[in-house]
Amino acid sequence: MKKTSRIIAFILIVALLIVGMGFTYKNVVKNVNLGLDLQGGFEVLYQVKPLGGDGKIDDKALQSTAQTLENRVNVLGVSEPHIQVEDPDRIRVQLAGVKNPDEARKILSSQANLTIRDADDHVKLTGKDIVQGSAKQEFKQGTNEPAVTFKLKDRAKFKKVTEEISKKQENMMVVWLDYKKGDSYHKELEKPEDKRKYVSAASVDQPINSDSVEISGGFQGQQGVERAKQIAELLNAGSLPVDLKEVYSNSVGAQFGQDALDKTIFASMVGVAIIYLFMVGFYRLPGIVAVIALTVYVYLTLVAFNFISGVLTLPGLAALVLGVGMAVDANIIMYERIKDELRVGRTLKQAYSKANKSSFLTIFDSNLTTVIAAAVLFFFGQSSVKGFATMLLLGILMIFITAVFLSRGLLSLLVSSNYFKKKYWMFGVNKNNRHDINEGVDVHDLKTAFEKWNFVKLAKPLIGVSILILVIGIIILSIFKLNLGIDFSSGTRVDLDSDTKLSQTKVERTIKDVGLTPDQIQINGNDNKQATVQFKNDLSKDETLKLNKVINDQYGHKPTVNTVSPMIGQELAKNAMKALIYAAIGIIIYVSLRFEWRMGLSAVLALLHDVFIIVALFSLLRLEVDITFIAAILTIVGYSINDTIVTFDRVRENLHKIKVITEPHQIDNIVNQSIRQTMTRSINTVLTVVVVVIAILIFGASSLFNFSLALLIGLLSGVFSSIFIAVPLWGIMKKHQLKKSENGKLVVYKEKKSNDEKILV
Questions:
Q1: Checking phi first, is residue 747 left (phi over 0); if not, alpha (psi -120 to 50) or beta?
Q2: Containing domain of residue 176, as a range?
Q3: What is the pLDDT of residues 147-188, one digit of tens each?
Q4: How far apart (Å, rounded) are the C-alpha atoms in residues 306 and 394?
Q5: CA distance 582 to 603
Q6: What is the reported pTM?
Q7: Residue at 550 is within a domain
Q8: With contact defined as beta carbons under 8 Å apart, do 493 and 544 qualify?
Q9: Is residue 449 part of a domain?
Q10: Which one of 64, 88, 108 terminates a domain?
Q11: 309 in the same domain as 393
Q12: For residue 618, what is the domain's CATH number?
């Protein structure tokens, strides 16, 4: 009997979802906090040192410095700054959307140490003599000139100081902000007025009996007013109780960020659209359900990301799209099992029930391995890499909500309605390919398109080829090494954007106009309107400011400037290795517990093979290795094992069926059967993810090119290794176990007592 109420319920749920998302998606998208690489801004990592170089930095000093920096952010007018204290002596400042990164660097790094000196640079008063919060930007009476006023704690002390200065031949009272060793009043006098480092210099003819000080004369026009405001606010924000050393910085122009965002969104839409078409075309009615679930997946992931106040970066956006591929994987596992159950002759309800039960643990196991890799990435990553891991972890959570529960709930309504009871073609199964249930054909007995393929036989020479590739890879690495980006080798990287076509000569001329010599220049983009310039040494703040100005003037866009100290480069490399080792250990432990240690070992060996292939190819092609490359590697570690886990899950099912192994050929049969039975699913899954990666590779931001390429190589290598390395390698180890077993037999499954299987009709 047809149950119209189930169809109505399906339509109502889908309608509610569409209407709900339609009315709220604008707010959801609007509330997403974009990272520096998507909207421009400034990031800097400071190493905190004691004033004068003596003593140690404790937690109190770090927190006090962080508070002072946060106060200074108000000077910049930046909303929602992210200031994080990092053990043992570092503070990370992230200011997304800041309009002037150069000004941000200048204000944040300013010590705000006010000193009043004589013409011979002797200190007379310091910031400690100022009444806290008394600094104001005002206008002089009569002339209406901008000025900065503040009050002193001790009127008598100021009178004494001004009396001493008035008696000198050169009776100048010089006000300095952040006086540095080597600075001199007389040196600054030789410079143009707008280039002088001191704030003001006034002659003192007689003692001043007052507790108020006025700084004026050096502020011209509207810019002068803004400068006076900043000085007043900096003085009120307080002097830094420590010295700050900049060990990492990244400034991204707003235009650069917007272009990257637009390109990556377009690439993502292309990739996802192709996935949607594939799912509907291949799986028919379940494919439509998958499209609904996948759309909800993207929506809920963004909602959850907003809830935790996450910051979306380019790698994070890539992780969101990659999650669509993983969600597709969860659906494909389910739908392939439904197709198999229909082919053996079960009714639609029976097929759905059996597939629902058998596929859940497979999906759980495959996704949990990705969680391990993402968690490692989160704990060891920094900045955009951590953002990538956060989005990946949220994505996996939403996969269970949408691709597992929502998708199954919607499909259950359609199945139980009985409207599609005999319409097997709507589930991708031809009527002619169905067996009669009375034939007693099991899912594991079904013929596949790969029956003529002997994967065990093919694996032997291919494992030999893989070993040869590994040897060649080691030779390549020893000769060429890795082309380390500044994330690992230290230095400064400048990415610039132009409205006109660029050439290496033109860019080199621009850089040399600043007085700098680039170590490497690379022209990027399909239209040659982007360029990357690298310096082996760290650029100073002044050099960075000058370079920014020249590039902005010549090309019309502010560049992205990324600086890493040697110390940070070494730490990144160390943490990356730790992350890889911990992820491998975590996966092998989990797989060993859920399956057996031979499967865990062979799975990890296959993964290490994939990692090494990526590394060797990047070395051979001289592609730059940066922190996003590490993110790609760890993603492959987590994602490509999905295929291996699914195949091992089928191996486990086939072992349960055979129960006892007495001959080596039985193991070969299990290996061949398991690979054949999961081959279609493996191909479909990897194709959907590869489509997304290729879309990002072709249409996405240039900064994601190496990331996407590493993913593509890893995905293709992952399919190869799971089919021709992981499972056959397990077969070899299992044969060895059989050879050493007592009585020449292996008991691989002991049947547990259970209730009789319920058949749904």
A1: beta
A2: 112-239
A3: 888 888 888 888 888 889 888 888 888 888 777 788 899 888
A4: 11
A5: 15
A6: 0.72
A7: yes
A8: no
A9: no
A10: 108
A11: yes
A12: 1.20.1640.10
